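sorry to bug you again but im stuck and you know this stuff better than me. below you get a single protein, a line of residues and a line of whole numbers that encode the local backbone shape. mainly i need to know what kind of three dimensional shape the backbone takes. anything you notice is useful, everything is just below:

***
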Amino acid sequence: MLDNKYAKAYTEVLEIIKYFPEEEYNKIPKEKIEFYKNNKDKDYKFIIDPRIDLSKQNVSKEASAIIVTIFKDYFASEEQKKKVLI
């Protein structure tokens, strides 16, 4: 198993992306989602409130970094990708 903080981050990422619209969710490769599922911390419970801005919730630095990477790799325009790299 991977480092525990990353296992927890994968649990958080899975919880966050389940609120993505289906069209957006489907842009993330199934292999990546399976990786997160296979390596998540199965004992860690993480729940978000979709009505509250994600930045106001207790998301780990690791999960935030993964979400930014997902955005950059699968959703961002070329201009947005340049800004993420800064």
